C-alpha cells in the first residue's frame, strides 16, 4: 500500500487550504495532514509518498515554520520514498521570486529521494522562479492571490500526475 502524508507550512491559510483540497482528491485522511509547525522527522518516516507544501515569504523565503522543519527533512532517510512539492505564491507582486520556497525545498531533497510531480510553466505569468528547473516547475505552483479560479484545474491535473507516479 502506498501511504501518503501531506506536510504544509502556511502563514495565512492559503497553503493549508490547498493541502486539504489535494488531500480530498487523493483520499488522504485528516490525520495524515501535518502543519510543519507541529511535525517532526518521525512523522515523515511513516509514509511512502510525501507531499511537501510551502508558501513563499519575504523575497523568495521559505514560510516561517519551514525554516525549522527543513532540518527535520534533511535528517530523514528519504531514499525509499517519493516526494512531491506544492506551493502558493503571488506571481504578480512577487514575479521575480514566484514560489521560490518550492525550489528551496527541492534543493534540500533532490539528492536524497525521487522527486515526482513537475509541472509545465505554460499558463503561468511570472519573470523568475527558483522553483523552475529545466524549464518546468519542480512541483505544483499555485497563486491564490491572483489566479484562484485556476487552482481547481491545476490541482486536478497535478493529482493525476501524482497518482500515475506513485
Ligand atoms: C510580505 C509578503 C511577502 C511575500 N513574498 C513572496 C515571494 O517572494 N514570492 C511569492 O511567490 N509570493 C510571495 N508572497 C505571497 C504569498 O506567498 C501568498 O500570498 C501565499 O498564498 C500565502 O500563503 P499562506 O497563506 O499559506 O502563507 C508574499 C506575501 C507577502 C504578504
Describe this structure in words.
The chain has a single domain, classed as Rossmann fold, CATH 3.40.50. With about 170 residues, the chain is α/β, with parallel strands linked by helices. The N and C termini lie close together (about 10 Å). The strands form two sheets. Strands 1, 2, 3, 4, 5, 6 and 10 form a seven-stranded mixed sheet that branches. A three-stranded antiparallel sheet has the order 7-9-8, with no helix packed on it. The chain has helices spanning about 15-25, 40-45, 65-75, 100-110, 150-165, and strands spanning about 5-10, 35, 50-55, 60, 80-90, 115, 120, 130-135, 135, 140. The longest helix has 15 residues, at about 150-165. The protein is globular, with a radius of gyration of 14 Å. Helix 1 (about 15-25) crosses helix 5. The mean pLDDT is about 95. It binds flavin mononucleotide. Flavin mononucleotide binds near residues 60, 90, 99, 100 and 144.
Amino acid at each position: 500500500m502506498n501511504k501518503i502524508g501531506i506536510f504544509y507550512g502556511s502563514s495565512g491559510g492559503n497553503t493549508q487550504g490547498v493541502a486539504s483540497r489535494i488531500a480530498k482528491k487523493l483520499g488522504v485522511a485528516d490525520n495524515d495532514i501535518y502543519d510543519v509547525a507541529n511535525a517532526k522527522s518521525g512523522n515523515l518516516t511513516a509514509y511512502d509518498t510525501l507531499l511537501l507544501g510551502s508558501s513563499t515569504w519575504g523575497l523568495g523565503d521559505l514560510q516561517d515554520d519551514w525554516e525549522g522543519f527543513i532540518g527535520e527533512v534533511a535528517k530523514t532517510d528519504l531514499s525509499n520514498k517519493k516526494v512531491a512539492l506544492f506551493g502558493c505564491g503571488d506571481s504578480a507582486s512577487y514575479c521575480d521570486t514566484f514560489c521560490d520556497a518550492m525550489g528551496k525545498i527541492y534543493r534540500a531533497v533532490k539528492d536524497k529521494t525521487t522527486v515526482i510531480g513537475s509541472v509545465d510553466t505554460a499558463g503561468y505569468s511570472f519573470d523568475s522562479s527558483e522553483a523552475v528547473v529545466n524549464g518546468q516547475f519542480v512541483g505544483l505552483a499555485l497563486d491564490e492571490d491572483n489566479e484562484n479560479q485556476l487552482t481547481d484545474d491545476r490541482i486536478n491535473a497535478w493529482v493525476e500526475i501524482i497518482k500515475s507516479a506513485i
